[in-house]
Amino acid sequence: MSAPGQSATPAAADPPAAGVDNQPDRPLFRRRPTGRLGTWWHRQPRQSQWLYLIPVVLLVYALPILNPPVLTTEPGSDFAITCFEMSKFALVAIGLNIVVGYAGLLDLGYVAFFAVGAYVAAMFTSPDSPYLKIPYLWTLPLAMVVTALVGIFLGLSVLRLRGDYLAIVTLGFGEIIRILATIIPAMKGQVGFQNVGAPPGTRDSGVPLFTNSDGAPWYWLTVTIIIVVLFLVGNLERSRVGRAWIAIREDEDAAEIMGVPTFKYKVWAFALGAAFGGLSGALMAGQIGFVNNQRFDVQTSILFLAAVVLGGQGNKVGAIVGGALVAYIPYRFVEIANYKYLIFGIVLVLLMIFRPQGLIPARMHLLTYARRARTWISSMVAGSERRVPRGQDGGAT
Q: Which residues, including other chains, have CB under 8 Å from residue 340's CB and lie 6 or more apart?
């Protein structure tokens, strides 16, 4: 019996048992940094997400035509060309994100794959090349195959290394490709290749549809490729390969102990990342119409890496945002374009201090049925909390 004047709460006076959570109001899954919008988005079924994305995709396609006054880069730079540069950097960032974001391999020489793809398109379409001429669109898959083979060769050579050693070797590999383009006569060094091919098609006036001065068709082509690549990468990251990459990124030794063939999956990451880098290089070569050895320096490779870090490593949407921003800012603010490396350096330092996960951080739950499992566990926990334990109903004894 409880004493008069005292509340009958004997259970509250007892100390909590060891290992028992005494904070029943604490949620099982903490809210992600994306906030309420991100939580709501990830709770939607995949079919609903696709429906919500349709207006966004249409708006992205219409961007060069709309030319919003707030976003326009004119009169300093043609806005359609700027849109193509943004899409090109976004595609590069998606490929590099596979290597850096998913597999956790620091690659400072990614510009080498970009250069190989550009030279494949130039050497098989330019009249300055003595080699076999093929239609430009055929060079896109060819560039992916060649750069994937180069990525496999690099992976087999250096992927026994880790951390800083891997970064230094990949940086040297990027410089090797640039030097080879300088000293090999068939690659024409600084003279380069002119009149690189372009996709077919003409306007009503008979003018070619894909020209160097009009970036809108190139932008639409690149955005279409990005959508296909996102579909492939999204399914890949939820597969066994994607889970293996995440395990390698988090702890390579633990992944190998658990039976993950780490070396094989790291080579796959290099091959796929290289293929997308070569694809973006072939698109660049076709749009500019000129390729030489001066476009593939270390600074460009660092910008590619900055795009992935800025957007959020391991998040394909973050990579797109980071790549678009890295390409857009110098065209939007022409007056400070000469200081872009200084600006990006300061931004990255501030980002590492205040938001090290990037603008759009990656979600850690990348398993195939993670969403369904979280929903089921949350419902089970909520049901157990609603049931009051026997003997702790607050009544008098």
A: 329, 330
